[in-house]
Amino acid sequence: CKYSIPVKSTDAFDTYTALNHVKGKDKIENIYSDNHSSLRKAAHAIGATWEASQPGVHHSNAIIERCNQDILDGSKVLLCQAGLPACFWTWSCPYFCHIENIMQDEDGGSSWKSRHGTDFPGDAIPFGCGVFFLPAPSTGLNDKTAPSMSYGIFVGYRIAPGGTWNGEYLVLD
Questions:
Q1: Cβ(100)–Cβ(78) below 8 Å
Q2: What pLDDT score does 53 carry?
């Protein structure tokens, strides 16, 4: 499974929080990464062994670099197709990873199904499309005279710890 969790900094705490969110109740045994100290510290904090790639040896980290490039390119295409500016990358990157995870391969399987045992139960909605949604009661938009639905931009899925989904879609009003 691919995941993208935008963080405010690259310090060890934010890195640990992101790894722990992806991990959920599962156990991560080994993390292979570049030599960034926050990755090393976060790997040890979640109880995983950490192995560094060799600096300057590009083929030792080519697989993950290609994966990262796919995520970046896919996110840019989503933004362009939706007509949204680059500042929306914090939604397009996680969306792209999620859609990659739930897409079925030629055998009818998916990364999502391999990890969770079932197909993704939600709808595959295009990034940036217009949708009608019920606003949260806490927004104050649900008074007696307001329409019951609002119009917004669909930007993804709220992924719960462990990569699970609790049925929440992300929509910007």
A1: no
A2: 79
